[in-house]
């Protein structure tokens, strides 16, 4: 039963658009930041632990969900876009970082 549910969920996520995948994937960044930034709050250690578990879990869920939505071709598309952005910066006269 759970195997079929997992397959159906994966198929549903893969049917979503590229744009949706990029948005979901971008949501993981603030969640990762929040999961560690909340350690500076003046609250009990147990509350910090629970906040970290929830926020880090959400970050991982959105990361893997976004990757599933993008799929292999979408991942390659994002990678090409990031490479082009890096080349644009280098073309503007900036020295490449080692």
What this model shows, in words?
By secondary structure, the protein is mostly helical. The protein has one domain. It has helices at 2-14, 18-37, 45-91. Helix 2 crosses helix 3 (45-91). The longest helix has 47 residues, at 45-91. The radius of gyration is 18 Å and the shape is flat. The model has no long low-confidence stretch (mean pLDDT 86).
Secondary structure category = mainly alpha
Give the distance, in angstroms, between the N- and C-terminal Cα atoms: 50 Å
Largest sheet: none
Number of helices: 3
Uncertain segments are none
Work out the number of β strands.
0
Strand content: under 5%
Helix content, binned percent: over 70%
Mean pLDDT across all residues, rounded? 86
Shape: flat
The radius of gyration over CA amounts to 18 Å
Order of helices and strands: HHH
**How many domain modules?**
1
How would you summarize this macromolecular structure in one to three sentences?
The protein is mainly alpha-helical and 98 residues long. It is built from three helices and no strands.
Descriptive keywords:
single chain, 98 residues, mainly alpha, 3 helices
What order do the helices and strands come in, and which of them pair?
Layout: H1 2-14, H2 18-37, H3 45-91
Helix pairs in contact: 2-3
């Amino acid at each position: 039963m759970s195997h079929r549910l997992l397959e159906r969920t994966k198929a549903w996520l893969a049917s979503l658009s590229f744009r949706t995948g990029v948005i979901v994937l971008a949501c993981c960044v603030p969640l990762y930041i929040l999961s560690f930034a909340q350690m500076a709050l003046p609250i009990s250690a147990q509350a910090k632990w629970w906040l970290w578990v929830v926020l880090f879990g959400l970050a991982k869920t959105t990361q893997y969900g976004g990757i599933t939505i993008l799929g292999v071709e979408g991942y390659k598309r994002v990678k090409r876009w990031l490479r082009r952005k890096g080349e644009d910066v280098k073309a503007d006269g900036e020295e490449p970082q080692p």
